[in-house]
Amino acid sequence: MPDTVAIRPASTVVLLRDGKEGLETLLLKRNKALAFAGGFWVFPGGSLDPEDMAAGEGNEEAAARFAAAREAMEECGQQPRPDDMVLLSHWTTPEAETRRFSTWIYAAPLHLEEQVVIDGGEIHDSRWVTVEQALSEHRLGELAILPPTWITLVTLCRYDTVKEAIDGERNTPVPQVLPVLARFDGQLVALYRGDAGYDSADPSLPGARHRALLIDGVWSYYYQDVDPEFQALMPLD
């Protein structure tokens, strides 16, 4: 892939609320016809606009908060507050992709019970679901999600309430993730820093394993013999 592929700043917000069965989040299903993540369930989000950069006074991380709030309103009619957002992670699209994004992923509580409104264009469906249920459905191959969504859900699954999640994530490291995509035994694998095959994009090399493997539409995470410099992207217990 040519080095000239532009990396566009973007942001995503994980909307959270307390439900009867536990911590809930809002997932949106993207139109299958879309070139990027078509048919996948995602959190609200999108690229930063010039207006977002202006609101953030030229600071990309600050602008990403305004963009996440704007996209949540445009895609599903929800109104998270930028000041309430907690940064969870930052992901850069793999170099092999034709469209690349530098994406800030936030979590935010919702203070108002707004009706979810989708446009039926880019977004074709929506649902409030407990984090635990979303992960259960993915394990059964019933919920198509990308690694950043899946890892974020696993990270939040350890919390029972919105307050616990927001307070807990304020004090955790923010992973900076640039995956390398490859094939291994006929399966798609995402390699992360610290994996023996990361620099060469060769997942067959012996040594440390820091990767996510997709089998039958279900992701599995491996973190074995990794140098402590490269922290795990999700809770391991």
Would you kindly provide a written description of the structure presented here, covering whatever features stand out?
- This protein has 237 residues and is of the alpha+beta class.
- The protein has helices spanning 50-55, 60-76, 131-139, 147-156, 162-169; strands at 7-19, 22-30, 41-42, 45-47, 86-92, 100-109, 123-130, 176-177, 180-184, 187-191, 209-215, 218-224.
- Strands 1, 2, 3, 4, 5, 6, 7 and 8 form an eight-stranded mixed sheet that branches. Strands 9-10-11-12 form a four-stranded antiparallel sheet, with no helix packed on it.
- Helix 3 packs across helix 4 (147-156).
- The N and C termini lie far apart (37 Å).
- The mean pLDDT is 94.
- Name the poorly predicted regions: none
CATH topology of the largest domain: Nucleoside Triphosphate Pyrophosphohydrolase
- Domain count: the total is 2
Which CATH first-tier class of the largest domain would you pick? Alpha Beta
**Total count of helical runs of at least 4 residues:** 5
Shape, principal axes of CA atoms: globular
Mean of all residue-level pLDDT scores: 94
Largest sheet, in brief, is: 8 strands, mixed
Briefly characterize the structure:
The chain has 237 residues and is of the alpha+beta class. It has five helices and twelve strands.
Index terms:
4-stranded antiparallel β-sheet; Nucleoside Triphosphate Pyrophosphohydrolase; globular; alpha+beta; 21% helix; 8-stranded mixed β-sheet; 237 residues; 2 domains
Question: Mind sketching the topology for me?
Answer:
Layout: E1 7-19, E2 22-30, E3 41-42, E4 45-47, H1 50-55, H2 60-76, E5 86-92, E6 100-109, E7 123-130, H3 131-139, H4 147-156, H5 162-169, E8 176-177, E9 180-184, E10 187-191, E11 209-215, E12 218-224
Parallel strand pairs: 1-6, 5-8
Antiparallel strand pairs: 1-2, 1-4, 2-3, 2-7, 5-6, 9-10, 10-11, 11-12
Helix pairs in contact: 3-4
